[in-house]
Amino acid sequence: MRDKIIKFQAFLASPIHIGSGEYYEPFSYVIKNNKIYHFDTSVFLSKLPSEKIKQFTMIVKNPSFSKTLEARKFIYENFDISSMANIVFDEQDVSSSDFANEYSEKLINLASKDFNNKMINMLEIEKTYSSGGYTVIPGSSIKGSIRTAIVNKIIEDNHIKYDPTRRDEYKKLMKEMNLSFTDDIFKILKVSDFSKSESVGKWIGYFHNYPKKSLEKSVSGELTVASEVIRPFQLFAGWLTIGDIPTHKYKRDVDNILESKQNLFKCLNRHYLELFKKDYNLFKEKSLNHNFVKIVDKQGLIDKLNENKYAVIRVGKHSGAEGVTFKERAIKIKENKRRQAVHDAKEPTTVWYFSQKKINNINSLYPMGWLILI
Please, which of 172, 215, 311, 368 could form a disulfide with 265 given CB 3.0 to 4.6 Å? Predict the structure, then answer.
């Protein structure tokens, strides 16, 4: 039997950050005229005249923290976009981000004044995932969210009992259901990376931790590393390929869910929609002028999700513990560094949001990871 292919569009209802383990190093970008320019440092140096290269060589000849800052300042002062546009592999507008000010203050003004503070480390930027130089939402992240929703439906529909207070219960349950990685029925499900034909808009900012159900005061500590996220309200596209489902005790369940796009959407919304509505209602209660609220209303997303014309999933960093495994599982909570962690909480006590600002008002905060499948 030929594999079945289902095409999707994916609308980002909020920022998304897919961890890559990589960072933009402080020597590989500059910020000028409210734009951040990314480039390969060695290529940048190759564009300089010989006397400038000698000057840079003398700066880095005897490595030290002060020399590192001096080298970074050298790169800033000698980068000229008018003659070096061809070495830039990515650029983004940062006029709304506090990181542009932080960059200027901690690198330019303070570079010769405060050598005891390792400011250079604070100017790294955590990168979101890319493939072949293009920013994408990896298919593995989307497949993981789909798998979680399907597994939860199987558990609920078959009245499978489990102990949600045990932290190892999910792994144990997957083994009992023959859904562990060695014999996982979801091997037949392949999801492409989701991408855009035009350039992807991104933001640079900070993750902030707030008490659940409250957006009044952050409980985050001092933030040192900025992060790159995919900007919300963009449309990506990809597809899902479904192969022949092998003999399995839950073959009928999976067959039915993957029989059509609408059945899959019903399954996804059953797991994620109430969580999405909680975020929407919280922001709507706090500010009717918030872009997240306005776009959801303008696009009629709640009605379309209720009718299963669209489906919502959650992907990426800080997308919340409630949606990543089976419902009511034990959630590990660290009250602070000195107290013992609590393992049996049914829901998290804090939530992470993203903002381009270091000090926030409600309209600068965004929930993380919401993706609307169309």
Answer: 311
Q: SS3 for 194? A: strand
- State the Cα–Cα distance between residues 96 and 205, nearest whole angstrom: 9
State pLDDT tens for residues 107-128: 755 444 444 445 455 688 999 9
Q: Which helix (H) or strand (E) holds 45?
A: helix 41-46
Question: Cα–Cα–Cα angle for 159, 162, 163, nearest 5°?
Answer: 145
Query: Is the pLDDT score of 333 beyond 60?
Result: no
Query: Long-range contacts of range 121-125, CB-CB < 8 Å, 24 or more positions apart?
Result: 121/224, 121/225, 122/224, 122/225, 123/26, 123/72, 123/226, 124/23, 124/24, 124/25, 124/26, 124/225, 124/226, 125/23, 125/24, 125/29, 125/99, 125/204, 125/225, 125/226, 125/227, 125/228
The residue written with tokens 């940048």 in the block is 44
Closest by Cα among 100, 98, 72, 307 to 208: 98
Q: Are 204 and 97 in contact (CB under 8 A)?
A: yes
Average pLDDT of the segment spanning 6-13: 97
3 state SS of 140: helix
